[in-house]
Design brief:
198 residues, flat
Length: 198
């Protein structure tokens, strides 16, 4: 969007009023309002032109490969206007990869798609400090632990484990002695022994 000399004068005056608020002449206020209306209208017109351009692009893409030259020209114009390539654009460019213009546009679209993915991941990732999760490092035995700020919860003393006050159990307590196996039951087929009377 380009501004003319008169529009730039109004814009400078509007910025001066924003930086140093105070009473403004009615003429300056009217000029600022007219400039704002012109910018809004230019923005709406730009959105309409972009919608027409994307509609033409979709029509040329649907008629490929016979419309390759027109499609590539429109795609390059759309990318310059801020269009982000869609999967259908990638598929069409891969099919036209033999064309040098299509190959160059494919590389450009792949770069844009990679940037979009990185931006989405950056927006959805939550910093560790906001989730309250902190990485705690412990020193090896004999090493010096890292110093932490006074308000860090990791500096609070850990509760004493009551089990450590007990003595270490002996192997006999952990592994009780094995009992001798019980005597096998008497054979039911053998006749019972008679005890001799004394």
């Amino acid at each position: 969007m380009a501004f003319g000399t008169e529009e730039l004068r109004v814009l400078r005056r509007a910025l001066a009023l924003a930086l140093h608020p105070g009473p403004a002449p009615a003429r300056d206020v009217q000029d600022c309002l007219r400039l704002a209306e012109s910018v809004d209208e230019a923005t709406r017109e730009g959105a309409r032109l972009r919608a027409f351009l994307l509609a033409d692009l979709a029509r040329y893409r649907a008629a490929l490969p016979g419309t390759a030259a027109g499609y590539l020209t429109l795609l390059e114009e759309a990318l310059g206007a801020g269009h982000h390539p869609v999967p259908d654009d990638m598929t069409a460019l891969r099919a036209l990869r033999g064309n040098p213009v299509a190959a160059a546009l494919l590389d450009r679209c792949l770069t844009l798609a990679e940037q979009d993915v990185r931006e989405r991941l950056a927006r959805h990732s939550v910093p560790a400090s906001r989730t309250g999760v902190r990485t705690r490092l412990t020193a090896l035995p004999g090493g010096k632990p890292a110093e932490r700020p006074a308000g860090d919860p990791a500096t609070r003393p850990a509760p004493q484990n009551p089990r450590r006050d007990r003595p270490v159990p002996t192997p006999g307590e952990v592994f009780p002695p094995r009992r001798k196996p019980a005597a096998p039951p008497a054979n039911p087929e053998s006749p019972p022994r008679q005890l001799a009377a004394v």
